[in-house]
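Last lecture ended with a question: if I hand you only a sequence, what can you say about the shape of the protein? Today we answer it with a concrete record. The protein is Endonuclease-reverse transcriptase. Below, first the input exactly as provided, then the predicted structure, then a couple of comments.
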Amino acid sequence: MYVCNLNDSPEIRARVAMTKATLNNCAYLKSNRISMDVKLHLTRALVASRLTYGCSTWTIKAADMNRLDALGREIWRRLLGLTWKDHVSNEELNTKIAGRWLFSSETVLQHNAKWFGHAVRCGGLTCAVLCGLPCGYKRKLGRLHLRWIDNLTKWSGRSAAQLLEDGRHRINIIKGYKPKNVYNLRGGQRANLAYDY
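The predicted structure:
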């Protein structure tokens, strides 16, 4: 969905609804005959992929973050077979899953950071558009809209200029993200990269 007013909330709501419909169609995820590891793999492949398609370009507001986090908790409740009759609070759910989130708003921000690094390394007009305003553009009166780069600056604690420099040099801009070991198949050399494409 193409949006020119930086409001991605309708698309996020639509993606959440599609994900819930997919989750309802996957009745085998409630089965006790399937191990939890297989359920997690199936959920990542079939359910979470519906939600994360195109999420790297979303501008996320606080209400959208809450909606995405609630969806992540709902997915875990389905996998564990918990209903509202069980009266399991969110804190109890967090202790049960021991921090193994399948999906949260942080997942979308990680996708944003990966896409940002890729776009910055492409160079050219992309960098100028991501971090600034085009020449000759006059801002309208009123409060500024939340921009895409504002999510990354708030989440990483760095300025847009620092993020640009880190993205050019493949420096990790994601808090707590461990680089993946990537092997160069031609030379057999091992390299640590912050982004896995």
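Comments.
1. The two ends are 24 Å apart (CA to CA).
2. Residues 115-193 form one domain.
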